[in-house]
Specification:
The chain is an all-beta fold. It has no helices and 18 strands.
């Protein structure tokens, strides 16, 4: 029987005259699979980018590693795969390592891809011109639970009115997924930054 690691196998032969000869070879018995662990992203994490880099550790630099079928770079007891694409929602990241002896290890983690809210500035339109120093800003967002800011100030969710400012009067807002706010304008070009 072979033991784990290096084994010396010696063959001896004796002829009819009593002469002996021998030869020895060294064989390696490896029945231990690689030890692997996913370092990033961590299990259960939520990411807002649909293309991620997966990194982890492995105790055998000679092993080959795949992450969801993509060949990883293995060096210095770490593995890396860049450009792994996720789908919206829950994603299983499966890492498979195979050492030169054919031993396999598998580990996996769950990562949730939640893209950020989609924002649309409904009013004013890009390039609008006003002859007064303020304007109402209307924003539509696909997530009614989002917190929306307009130029860094919290926006209000829901219906608005009555309108008391001069200028065009935007239509009423939906109470669920539209937000509004008012900003002051300076002479010349003004930038409206909306975030959620």
């Amino acid at each position: 029987d072979l033991i784990e690691g290096a084994n010396a196998v010696t063959v001896r032969a004796v002829d009819n005259a009593g002469n002996t000869g021998s030869a020895t070879v060294i064989t390696i018995s490896d029945t231990t699979p690689p030890v692997i662990a996913i370092a990033s992203p961590s299990n259960g994490s939520i990411v807002d980018n649909g293309i991620i880099t997966v990194t982890g550790t492995i105790d055998d630099n000679a092993a080959t590693v795949t992450v969801n079928g993509i060949n990883a770079i293995v060096a210095n007891n770490t593995f890396t795969v860049s450009g792994l694409r996720l789908v919206e929602g829950s994603n299983t990241i499966t890492v498979i390592a195979r050492d030169p002896a054919g031993n396999l290890s598998t580990t996996s983690s769950i990562v949730t891809y939640a893209s950020g809210p989609v924002l649309t500035i409904q009013y004013p339109t890009d390039g609008s011109t006003f002859n007064y120093p303020y304007t109402e800003v209307r924003v539509s967002v696909d997530d009614p639970t989002a917190t929306v800011t307009i130029n860094g100030k919290p926006a209000t969710n829901g219906l608005i009115g009555p309108f008391t400012l001069p200028g065009p009067k935007p239509e009423s807002l939906s109470p669920s997924n539209d937000f509004y706010g008012f900003i002051e304008l300076v002479e010349g070009a003004n930038t409206i930054i909306v975030s959620a």
